[in-house]
Structures are given as C-alpha cells and as structure tokens.
What we know:
Layout: H1 2-32, E1 50-53, E2 59-67, E3 70-79, E4 82-90, H2 96-100, H3 102-113, E5 125-126, E6 140-146, H4 194-202, H5 208-219
Antiparallel strand pairs: 1-2, 2-3, 3-4, 4-6, 5-6
Helix pairs in contact: 4-5
Amino acid sequence: MRATLQGALLLACCVWAIIAQAQSNNAGNSSHSNPGEVTASEGTGKTEPIRFNNKAKDECVMVVSSHRNATKLRVTCKTKGKSYWCDYLGKPNVCRAYSKNPHHYFTQIMWEMRKLPNSCQGLQTYKPQMCRSATDEAQMVFHASWPKIPKKSKPQLPVKDGSKPVTNAALKPIQPQKPAKTTTQKPTETPKNWADQVAEEHCWESIQGICSFFINWFQS
C-alpha cells in the first residue's frame, strides 16, 4: 500500500514538472516576439552596436533599428563632456550582399566615418562597396542631426582697420582707364630780325653771321 502511494506521488510530480516547463517556454516565446523589437528575420540584420573612435578621438557608436518601412542608422559621438548624433535612413535589404552579411555593410560605413573629425559632418549618402551594383534604395541617406549642421557661409575678405568684412559679391571689377591723348607741339621758330634777313640776301652763306653783326652795328 505504501509503495503504491509513493509511485502515485512520483508520477504526479513528473506530470507537474512537464506542465510547468511547457508554460515557461510559451511565456518566453511570447516575450521574444515583441512587435517593437528588431530581429534578423525582419531584414535589419545583426543589431549589435558598432563602436569606433574618429579622427578627433571622439567615442562613437552606431546602432541599427527599424523606422517604419526603412532601416535607421543612428550615430552618436561623445567628446569632452559633449555629445552629438545623426540619423541615416535607407533600405539596404534590397541589396543581396546585405542580406548575407548586414554587419559588414555598416562596418564599411563606419570605416568612412572614422576618418572624419566630426562623424556627423560627412557624406549625405553612404553606399558601401558591397552594394555598389544595387539601386540607390540600398544606400543610407542623411535624415536628421543634433546639433544641426550649419550651412556653409560665403567666404569673406580679411578685415582691415576695424571696417566691416566685405564679401566677394560686393566687389566690382575695376574698369581699365583709356590713356589720355597727348598732343605734340611743334617748336616755335625764332623770328629773324632785319639784319639777318639782309645778310641772307646780300652776303655769302659763309660770312652771313659777320655781315649781320656789322649791319646791326651800323644800324645802332
């Protein structure tokens, strides 16, 4: 009688253990199928963060997640107590090479961003070499950033003597001036006096000077 009771208790314990294990497995499967969680089967691939240091030694991390019907890449960097981030959107799953190795896709983007002093001030679009033959949908396109990236301003000329800076648009080309016309004046001839005229008319050419002297002397 006692042996029969012990066997029944042992059987009941085994049945209870099997039921508890089944309930635990069902609970684990339901929690794993959270709609907000991104898995490899959903097309975003491996989601482990990719950490790197850029040219300015900023500590950066890349995180991949889903965004509506696209894939979002967020890059966050920290430097000297400050931080900045930027988002890129795209559909890299249209690339066959991405489906085989999604982690390598974002690693190639990381190698480009690590060359920059600010990893969020690089290209507007990133298309890794492994997906060059795919359509432009496979590239990651800049979406947003914080702080906002300032627009490039027009170059200014150096400031002199405390005056306001002058832009290139305010400068006008200097028109070349035409050279002023110069008029040449003919040398004026000294009028001949009466003695010289008389000497030219009545004296030989070799002694016209002497004749003019004596004519002036007699005239005076």
